[in-house]
Amino acid sequence: MKLARLALPLCLLPCAELFADTPDRDQALKLPEMLISANRQVEARNDSSAANTVFTREDIDRLQPSSLTDLLQRVPGVQIARSGGRGSLPGIYLRGTGSAQSLVLVDGQRISSSSSGDSNLQYLNVQQIERVEVLRGSRSVIYGSDAIGGVIQIFTRRGAQQGLQGRMHVGFGSNQT
Questions:
Q1: CB burial class (10 A; 0-12, 13-18, 19+) of residue 154?
Q2: What ranges in the chain are assigned the alpha helix state H?
């Protein structure tokens, strides 16, 4: 009887290391990046059948684009055509479709013009954006006929605390910019 009481803890001793949480194991088991726009529900990017590109806030800070159109030019299958200088209306072409056939959502709301179908992306500041999801390919079944080329979903930043918060951004350039 005494031997059986000692044998059980000795047999379970090698298994104790499997149940111990170490910091390395916790970091290795992080969840994969999530995609929200593909099927209008949260799913893992690897499980999505849509060709997608996601820019997080860390990516935006690392790449330092001067505008949202500069960030979107890094996406394969997306062409940006400017029809003038700074502040002009950009044309967005996803996989060869027209601007009116590419849906742009800001926090889930369509921002395209009802007359031309173009989106006024020049008014969005890159510092106010938390995440950008670009879905290439037809999403017209889920989002409607203006998503034949794809969907660009933009999520804006949210305040972590109540009340006013200060943020400062300093930059310089050349050629009077």
A1: buried
A2: 2-12, 16-19, 23-28, 57-63, 68-72, 140-143
Does residue 111 belong to any structural domain of this protein? yes
E strand residue ranges, 45-124: 51-55, 78-82, 90-94, 102-106, 109-110
Please list the residues that pair with 134 across neighbouring strands. 53, 152
Sign (positive/negative) of CA torsion 84, 101, 130, 65? negative
- The span from the CA of 43 to the CA of 36, in Å, is 6
The pair phi, psi for residue 26, each rounded to 5°, is -65, -40
C-alpha to C-alpha distance for 160 and 131, rounded to whole angstroms: 16
- CA proximity to 81, closest of 122, 53, 142, 41: 122
Phi, psi of 116 (to 5 degrees): -105, -25
Question: For the segment 36-73, what is each residue's pLDDT rounded down to a tens digit?
Answer: 556 666 666 666 667 788 898 899 999 989 888 889 99
* 0.70 surpassed by pTM: no
Assigned domain for 4 exists: no
In the chain, the amino acid numbered 51 is: A
Rounded Cα–Cα distance for residues 142 and 57 (Å): 27
34 strand-pairing partners? 44
Q: Give the CATH number of the domain where residue 79 resides.
A: 2.170.130.10
